[in-house]
Design goal:
The chain has a single domain, classed as Aldolase class I (TIM Barrel), CATH 3.20.20. The longest helix is centred in the C-terminal third of the chain and has 20 residues, at 202-221. The chain has a four-stranded parallel sheet, with helices on both faces. A three-stranded parallel sheet has the order 6-7-8, covered by helices on one side. Helix 2 (24-36) packs parallel to helix 3, helix 2 packs across helix 10 and helix 9 (189-198) packs antiparallel against helix 10 (202-221). By secondary structure, the protein is an alpha/beta fold. It has helices at 2-13, 24-36, 51-62, 83-92, 104-112, 124-132, 150-155, 174-180, 189-198, 202-221; strands spanning 15-19, 41-45, 74-78, 97-98, 117-118, 120-121, 138-140, 163-165, 185-187.
């Protein structure tokens, strides 16, 4: 049941903050600011040094709150390339697993623990392979290679596929992606680069608010 609840919460949240940084402390600060701005799904990438420390710290802080409360957020892990990394992250507190590619053993591991897994795919063949393994959401990556029109093109032959573009999603095109029928979107450097450059993490909260406002508006219009 928890997996189904997490998938529903991910769909309702709509926007996943994909966070990369130079230290776990920096990523925790990024996540706190994004959550303050209203983004309720955080993906800590395994490219962050000591990433599991950040996942554990965030999970301890945000998982104890009620899912409907302002202090709750889903903490997941990204850039997972193998099942060993997926299990380590799950044990550290990750509630969902994201990968840039499709690794069958990683999917099987996540299914064993009833954890949502979102592997990257770029072709119809990869998406079908993911569906056959029991994947609930496919990460369209890199999304920057496509326009939002790719979503209905995919859903023509595969209406059952839940697609989440990551990479290339911005405030300028977020509404188009949502109206095209995506499950949700992943937001990367656009959320954090200005804040890091200026050393002002409050800018992440401001940008998160803008993303959530744009997302809610597009959902209401779609």
């Amino acid at each position: 049941m928890k997996k189904l609840q997490l998938l529903q919460q991910l769909r309702e949240s709509g926007v996943v903050a994909v966070l990369r940084g130079d230290s776990p402390e920096e990523v925790v600060r990024m996540a706190e600011s994004a959550i303050e701005g209203g983004i309720k799904a955080i993906e800590v990438t395994m490219t962050v040094p000591f990433a599991l420390e950040a996942i554990t710290a965030l999970a301890k802080k945000y998982h104890s709150a009620e899912p409907s409360g302002a202090d709750y957020a889903m903490i997941g892990v990204g850039t997972v390339l193998d099942p060993e990394t997926a299990r380590a992250a799950i044990m550290a507190g990750a509630e969902f697993v994201v990968s840039p590619c499709l690794n069958p053993d990683t999917v099987k591991l996540c299914n064993r623990y009833r954890v949502p897994v979102m592997p990257g795919a770029i072709t119809i063949q990869e998406i079908v392979a993911a569906l056959e393994l029991g994947v609930d959401v496919v990460k369209l990556f890199p999304g920057s290679l496509f326009s939002p029109s790719i979503v209905p093109t995919i859903k023509g032959p595969l209406p059952q596929a839940n697609v989440m573009p990551t990479g290339g999603v911005s405030l300028a095109n977020l509404g188009e992606w949502v109206k095209a029928g995506v499950f949700g979107v992943g937001i990367g450097s656009d959320l954090t680069k200005e804040a890091v450059a200026k050393g002002d993490f409050s800018l992440i909260a401001d940008k998160a608010r803008a993303y959530m406002e744009s997302y809610r508006k597009a959902k209401a219009e779609s």
